[in-house]
Amino acid sequence: MVTWYREFKESIFFRKLFFLAFVTSLILFRTLLNRNLWMNPLSNVMDGWSIWETVNGEQKLTTECIENVLMMVPFSAVVMWTFHGKAGNGWNNILWLSGKIAFGFSLMIEILQLLLRLGTFQLSDIFYNTVGGVLGGMCYWGIIKIKKGL
User: Which of 4, 28, 106, 139 could make a disulfide contact with 129, Cβ separation 3.0–4.6 Å?
Assistant: First the structure.
């Protein structure tokens, strides 16, 4: 505990890694660890593209696509913040890298959901998570530009 405390107090990179691990654990808890088993994880592969869902002939509002976007915004922003030297300063590099990281992380989550039968594998989740990752990269780039202007 003393070593962790000393590293946390002295190293900015350690604090960033700790925050990244915290955000990642929140996402994994929401997507994998807090799920019920499904008998057929491939039952809704092409589902989830709209915010409206038809249940028993009734239109119901669902926020799943919005949640998928919002879930990945802080993740990709924190990844970019933690490893900012690797991404460079150009907006296209930051957006491309944050999109790739969000796509890979989302694909990993969806494949684990498929293999472990925790939830359903949905292509819309991968798409919306990647959009959220790019938005997180945009937020990070905007914050960098604001900080440079000050």
Answer: 106
Domains of the chain by residue range: 2-149
38/88 Cα distance (integer angstroms)? 42
DSSP code, position 59: E
CA-closest candidate to residue 90, choices 138, 136, 147: 138
- Rounded CA separation 137/94 (Å): 6
pLDDT digits (tens, 9 = 90+) for 108-138: 999 998 888 888 888 999 999 999 999 999 9
CB atoms inside a 10 Å sphere around CB 76: 30
What pTM was computed for the model?
Answer: 0.83
CA distance 46 to 124: 7
